[in-house]
């Protein structure tokens, strides 16, 4: 799609006097962003990975080195707060330093000094990041001028925070349960490890509850009074995150910030509606959900659209965005933020745009290669794909992981019942996933796809087939009402350097070509042997082997 002609927003949807947030004014706003070392651009996946690593290291130190569980778990939670929820660092840093001071006598001075240094330095970096927010807010207000407007649907029921609140309470309950049962664990080391997990879960619960409160508080503040407004351009990336551009950045060269949005913040349904109306609304809702899922599964960015921002953007802000719908027959789309604004520095924004274009170009080339391959190949009655050596490697790694757990937890006879129960649950996961990794099969014929399953191959008609894509390590298929996935190792950097194509990418490209062009589909009907066999016999054998291992070692 050409990005030099954004989808137009109707004039009636633009508040009177609303200014364009041009590249010049946006550049002044970007100049107020904090430096990169303030952890501004850390991705959530990286924050979660580093926090998990800190938890594992802390649990090991608590179980073997005698580190106080509060310090071990608290540091892991603190890492998460520094990277993903800096507002909580003001309380977390002093608490962690106090805990270190109380524990200093029983720890080597080097450990205490290093941890204290890390806490103080990151605390200072977060202070710089939070202090820069006032400058961003001031420059955004200057760009908007005196123009303000009430947010659309300001009187509608607010749902911000409804998801995180029960999640936080559930995780808190799990943490309390883990701490209450810590004395039932076998050895003192296990008990200390359980307290580390309990305190970490409590920290995650505090994170979720605080995020719910902050988001809801800022969303309510945005609704109470007229908010500043700015005209911008927006575009949804391949993962569904909204990128915001300056109003005159027609080529979508440099995103200013990203934000997650939803359009579900509307009125509660009327319980007195007739059954017929409920059925019609349900069908319309299903169709809308399918449309949204199709847009998310489309592995290309959406078109550039005109939009109006309600609220001054800054790091962590809440916004309302009214934008042109991708369907020109639909009215303007009103969306509320479901997460904080995440600014991008000029260099980070340009790298993001360049990476997105490179990934889009690679996807386009794969689809063209697959289409050429299918067009040049003589018509075939049936086309099949099956597990390869990468899938077998993934299965071997999963089995080795299970064997490591058995060797670690059942090194001595007479293991506690809770260990056997937990290993049994983990074994159920392996029993289901290993057969899929070893023997998955996708068969395409004239009628549709046949996808391997435990109870047998499932038939997916071509009309119900929605999308297929490789996302990270997973190959994902989606059809009307259901989906299927399998995972295998992938090293993107090595693939780019060597000019290799991951098998999942090739499969996804070829299936996508068949989905979009019926002339490229197979011409015959597949037989039962070609569709693959049920995987439950293999799963049953693996389950019996796992049970025997637990009985012998337990």
Quick summary:
The protein is an alpha+beta fold. It has helices at residues 23-31, 44-65, 69-84, 89-103, 109-144, 164-180, 188-224, 275-297, 346-376, 389-409, 417-439, 492-498, 503-516, 528-531, 536-553, and strands at residues 19-20, 148-149, 227-236, 242-245, 257-259, 261-262, 305-310, 320-323, 333-337, 342-343, 383-386, 441-444, 448-451, 458-461, 465-471, 474-479, 482-487. It is flat and about 70 Å long.
Task: Looking at this protein, list some descriptive labels.
554 residues; 17 strands; four-stranded antiparallel β-sheet; ten-stranded mixed β-sheet; alpha+beta
- Could you list the spans in which at least 5 consecutive residues all have pLDDT below 50? 265-285
Distance between the termini: 61 Å
Mean pLDDT: 84
Percent of residues in helical segments?
A: 40-55%
- The gross shape turns out to be flat
What is the number of E strands?
Answer: 17
In angstroms, what is the radius of gyration? 27 Å
Class by alpha and beta content: alpha+beta
Query: Main sheet?
Result: 10 strands, mixed
Strand content bin? 5-15%
Number of helices: 15
